[in-house]
Design a protein that fits this description.
It is a single chain. The protein has an eight-stranded parallel beta barrel, surrounded by four helices. A two-stranded parallel ribbon has the order 6-8. Helix 7 packs parallel to helix 9, helix 9 crosses helix 12 and helix 13 runs parallel beside helix 14. It has one domain: Glycosidases (TIM Barrel), CATH 3.20.20. It is α/β, with parallel strands linked by helices and 478 residues long. It binds 6-O-phosphono-beta-D-galactopyranose (BGP). The site of 6-O-phosphono-beta-D-galactopyranose has 15 residues, from loops.
């Protein structure tokens, strides 16, 4: 059985990493804007260094991104040339509600995304929209404490309702929160959480996560009421944890590590907190104030499909003599059987098949790979026709192996898979490092880590390769 004829091939982006135009179209300031490049990035992202406004000492890469704000027509045209069936992008919340707590939305912001969606449909591209990809209006953080405060559920509901109403017929596929489990790892970036000294961070993270889970269930409910055709997905930073060795302690450690991420998806896909999570809350004195009405809301509004990012598998151990590594903000033991990218993320195509199977076994709902790819340094060279290109065989190689892995999961294991949108289909700012030089795209964007460059777009070798892959519905991977 080959991939379905309507398999959604495409690419993924997020407003905070490509859109820019931070002070245009009547947009408000967001947490993602004030996360700087450089040594302060990590402490700000993790909520331990306070940066609530822009200053003159730092460079903030999100403010311009790759200026998708002004280039979207040109960029969508390039996606269409590759044959995209879908394009994943996110809404900048503060473009729709500047402060987040207004009664009325900002028409300029709504019109901007409407134009993008129409542009996509011109080419038969189905938009796949993340309602929030790490962004939260700064005003909601300063005034209410971000997602720690349940009032954010009300503001998010307002946002969701406006989006579903305005884009009815234009957007069918929605994701409620990007990598919802990232709140545990990079809480300021993930959910606008800043911690005061002495604050119980664990309690703050789980109560905020609970608020997001409730908001996600509300959005699912509203979306289905407004248009029963809407397909709502959850989104997790995935990649199965392996035990470093066959010691039972390592196997147990891996099971717990997997559960710490799956807990979120258990709630969104099955509609209730699993017992192991409730017990973990009890042991750690975490109180999420779960009420009967909330239980009902979660139970009745589960997602239609499960989406996830996959860059790498992970490995854990109880042993102390093992080297550590990091991949997509998750620390773990370094797997000696795998190669690593220039940024130390380990490369494991078979791990994608493993992850797809674990998720499908657990939930029996359609899956969607909405991020995957290799962050690498590219060299722009003349293409012999008066323009420039990149010979990115390393990227082609990575993607080829991962596509083969998900095809095997579909064709040989029977996993239901809706589509594949590799991350950063056009080069954009890296979330973890703020660099431009960590590139994922099929399209090169001339901009460097300090914000210099023409912003011109150039097609890489992988552009033509991916075009062939899509045209053959994944049959031609050479
Ligand atoms: C995921 C995020 C993306 C993206 C990707 C790659 O965690 O959802 O926003 O950035 O990782 O990570 P990075 O940009 O750090 O290479």
């Amino acid at each position: 059985m080959a991939l379905a004829k309507d398999f959604l091939w495409g690419g993924a982006t997020a407003a905070n990493q490509c859109e820019g135009g931070y002070n245009q179209g009547n947009r408000g300031l967001a947490n993602v804007d004030v996360i700087p490049h450089g040594k302060d990035r990590r402490p700000v992202m993790s909520g331990t260094k306070k940066m609530f406004e822009l200053d003159n000492e730092h460079y903030y890469p999100a403010l311009v991104g790759i200026d998708f704000y002004h280039h979207y027509k040109e960029d969508i045209d390039l996606f269409a040339e590759m044959g995209f069936k879908t394009f994943r992008l996110s809404i900048a919340w503060s473009r729709i509600f500047l402060n987040g707590d207004e009664e009325e939305p900002n028409e300029e912001g709504l019109k901007y995304y409407e134009d993008i969606f129409k542009e996509c449909h011109k080419y038969g591209i189905e938009p796949l929209v993340t309602i929030t990809h790490f962004d939260c209006p700064m005003h909601l953080i300063v005034k209410y404490g971000g997602w720690k405060n349940p009032i954010l559920i009300e503001f998010y509901k307002r946002l969701a309702k406006v989006l579903f109403t305005r884009y009815k017929g234009l957007v069918k596929y929605w994701l409620t929160f990007n990598e919802i489990n990232m709140i545990l790892h990079l809480p300021f970036m993930g959910a606008g959480l800043y911690f005061e000294e002495g604050e119980d961070q664990t309690q703050a993270k789980y109560i905020s996560a609970h608020h997001e889970l409730l908001a996600s269930a509300w959005a699912t409910k509203i979306a289905h009421e407004i248009d029963p055709n809407n397909m709502i997905g959850c989104m997790m930073a995935a990649g199965d944890y392996y035990p470093y060795c066959c010691m039972p302690e390592d196997v147990w450690e891996a099971q717990n590590a997997n559960r710490s991420n799956l807990m979120f998806i258990d709630v969104q896909a099955r509609g209730y907190y699993p017992n192991y999570a409730l017990k973990m809350f009890e042991r750690n004195n975490i109180d999420i104030h779960l009420s009967d009405e909330e239980k009902k809301l979660l139970k009745e509004n589960t997602v239609d499909f499960i989406s996830f990012s996959y860059y790498t598998s992970r490995c854990v151990t109880t042993r102390k003599d093992v080297t550590e590594t990091v991949g997509n903000a998750f620390k773990g033991a370094k797997n000696p059987y795998l190669k690593s990218s220039d940024w130390g993320w380990q490369i494991d195509p078979l791990g994608l098949r493993v992850t797809l199977n674990s998720l499908y076994d657990r939930y029996q709902k359609p899956l969607f790979i909405v991020e995957n790819g290799l962050g690498a340094k590219d060299e722009l060279i003349p293409d012999g026709n008066g323009s420039y290109t990149v010979n990115d065989d390393y990227r082609i190689d990575y993607l080829r192996q991962h596509i083969a892995a998900f095809k095997a999961a579909v064709e040989q294991d029977g996993v239901e898979l809706l589509g594949y949108t590799p991350w950063g289909c056009i080069d954009l700012v890296s979330a973890s490092t703020g660099e431009m030089s960590k590139r994922y795209g099929f399209i090169y964007v001339d901009r460097d880590d300090q914000g210099n460059g023409t912003l011109n777009r150039y097609k890489k070798k992988s552009f033509y390769w991916y075009k062939k892959v899509i045209a053959s519905n994944g049959e031609d991977l050479d």
